[in-house]
What we know:
This protein is 21% helix and 25% strand.
Amino acid sequence: MARTTPHDPPHASPHTAPSTAPHDPAHPEDEPLYRRIATELLGELRDGAIPPGERLPGERQLAEHFGVSRETVRQALEVLRRDGLVTTDRRGSHATLKGPPVETPAALAFPVGARYAGRGAMARATVSWESPPPGHAEALALSPSRPTLVHRYWSASADGCELRTAVTSFSTIALAEVEELARYRDRADGTTAAELRRAYDWLRRAGLTLHHRDTITRIAGTPSVRVTRRVHDQYARPLEITELIVDAQQDALVYEFTLPAAV
């Protein structure tokens, strides 16, 4: 996403042109900066960077993204609110462009490979606070010995033939910005049952737009395959990595995709 070169006034009314500061040369021929930011933000909303109904990043994040002050971001959001393109409630600002709100896309079930446990089927999920498995630390930009929240999922069909195991590690960014995940740290003893099926909803409601990449590889000498999912946000910051093991002879993975609505 393009960044705006800041020419940001300390305080400017949304009804007047921004004032001039010694370090902030004026451009009288241009429209006010807050209106340019409003236009750029609207363009990103229409491009699907933030789907309809999803929460926008906070003022601080938007200010860093566009290279302007939080005051300019506030003025830009007010322009979009007046035009009915953004709405604000106690949870923050949300895009209101036409299109269905994104709630629980089937392609982003957590963890990857999780499924409904039918009659006789078994499933178990736990969390622990420990050093991530090999390869996870690098993917999450963590030092190898730094502990983080690790989620383990196990499921089997009634006859025990279809077995899935998944291990997920979360980044410090995910834990810092998602209150629901951070709460698990104090009870992450590796034995207590953990219900994180709504983890992706929590990430989105924290203002993060999720991008995922799934890689499927065969495990040599076995009938199993490994699915590795890496999820990052709209700023390319890593959020989580999951490794799922599935017996390909006994089980099958089904991927479903929900495309953003055209605007």
